[in-house]
Amino acid sequence: MNISRQLSELHQRKHVLPAGNATAGLCLALKALGVEGKKVAIPASVCVNVPLAVLLSGNEPVFFDIDPKDFGISVEALRQSQERVDCVLAVHAYGSMCRIEELAALCKEKGLPLIEDFAVAQGARLQDRPAGSFGDASVVSFGAGKIVSCGGGAVLTDDKALFSELERHDGLLPDFTQEKHDGVGALMREFKISYNSWLGKDLNGFWKEFRRSALAAGPHFLHRYSPQWDAPIAAGLSGLDENLKGRARRAERLRRSLKSELIEAVAAPEGSVYWRFNLRVRRGRNELLKRLLRKKLPVSSWHAPADLFYRDRKERRTDLTRSDALGAELLNLWVDEAAGEDYLVSVSREINDFCSSLKQEVTP
Ligand SMILES: *Cc1c(COP(=O)(O)O)cnc(C)c1O
Fold first, then answer.
1. Was domain 240-362 assigned CATH 3.90.1150.10?
2. For 161-201, how does the pLDDT look when each residue is reduced to its tens digit (9 = 90+)?
3. Domain 3-231, second-level architecture
4. From ligand 1's centre to the CA of 2, what distance in Å?
5. pTM to 2 decimal places
6. Between the N and C ends of the chain, which has fewer C-beta atoms within 10 Å?
7. What is the DSSP string of 218-249?
8. Where in the chain are the domains?
9. Which atom of ligand 1 is nearest to the CA of 153?
């Protein structure tokens, strides 16, 4: 079965366009919807690719605070905002189902197009409706670190005219090359290095440099799908249920081994999936993160509010208190296939030890 058919069945959509990656997919969706030179509402707690896609499509991102219960864009913040927006880009961040039905209703009421980004939430559901079935256009990624991870992405829609526009814009893009792949990799490495060196100081400190590099790297993202990803994506989609069950099993292991009132496992809404296992670390998150990385245990602290990497924080126009708090406390642990028994045991022990050493410091 080809991947368009598989995706169409999995996500209950009529039309599927395989794309070079999800960043390109988001650009294609915006262009095909006729959103250009406009303001696009996005949640602040996302990876840097989302605002980049908005910028590369000739639009301006407007960062909104998140709902602390599901980490999606806050429906209330959007409804009450004085800032006019022309499109909403909703993200199921961390595998967590955002309030996508309410967002769809709000967009309909205001006459705004809705793009659904389920790059890290493939397989998530709201009751019996799958993530990827809600947006005017919905975008998935098969890039590094996603639920199905091999390369490429896709844009899904039920609208035939929109699909033709998606195909037309995609047809204007160049083919995938190794050079483009390396260009994207270089930007992501640069981001990680800057992030790590500014973490705990002022993450806003490298925005000018990063924004310049990201915009310059734009052409590396904007390319077509490559058929070399057909077979691995098809296999990944066939094994999606097993993949998600394995993630849930490893997350449960972590939940049972982690014991401290200084940490809290993040609870996502029913129907969400485990992209990673997310902990809120009430004190000493940065120190704990660095300690785990020194011990070669892969963990991350995604996502600090993405506006920090694209503009001066002083120009902030909306309240981002909840995104800031999440960014300061979040620790993502690995639950994909690479997270073996050794990892789960070691990472839990290190975190428990760290927490009890912190507790002793404050106990008289
Ligand atoms: C990774 C990611 C993207 C970009 O995906 P690529 O395929 O790597 O371009 C977009 N949105 C979200 C929420 C992501 O996590």
1. yes
2. 999 999 999 999 999 999 999 999 999 999 999 999 999 99
3. 3-Layer(aba) Sandwich (3.40)
4. 22
5. 0.97
6. C
7. HHHH-----GGGHHHHHHHHHTHHHHHHHHHH
8. 3-231, 240-362
9. 7
